[in-house]
């Protein structure tokens, strides 16, 4: 099967850089840059994950997902993260079928 990848940079406000340690993470802020990936191979089924104990009541669990790297799917494990502010919600990354292709949209805080 032939796989086509298209990546288009998209600017996003308030990005999150994750610094992980033992299954949870803290947040920091940096310059935004997101991309859109389109491939012709369907993503694999989501993997089951063990959700570790919540580090603090403010931490939010971000489930794992498949991303496209180095011409193949790679699993990004779920982790705990602190939201940028108390009023922000996590918009999960997602794959959407578009005809015979699959478009990936990165997750972000909104």
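Sequence proposed for the structure above (110 residues):
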């Amino acid at each position: 099967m032939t796989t086509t990848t298209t990546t288009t940079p998209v600017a996003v406000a308030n990005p999150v850089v994750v610094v992980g340690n033992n299954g949870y993470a803290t947040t920091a802020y940096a310059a935004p840059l997101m991309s859109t990936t389109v491939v012709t191979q369907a993503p694999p089924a989501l993997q089951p994950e063990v959700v570790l104990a919540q580090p603090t009541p403010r931490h939010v669990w971000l489930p794992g997902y498949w991303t496209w790297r180095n011409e193949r799917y790679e699993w990004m494990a779920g982790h705990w993260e602190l939201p940028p502010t108390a009023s922000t919600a996590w918009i999960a990354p997602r794959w959407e079928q578009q005809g015979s292709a699959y478009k990936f949209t990165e997750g972000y805080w909104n």
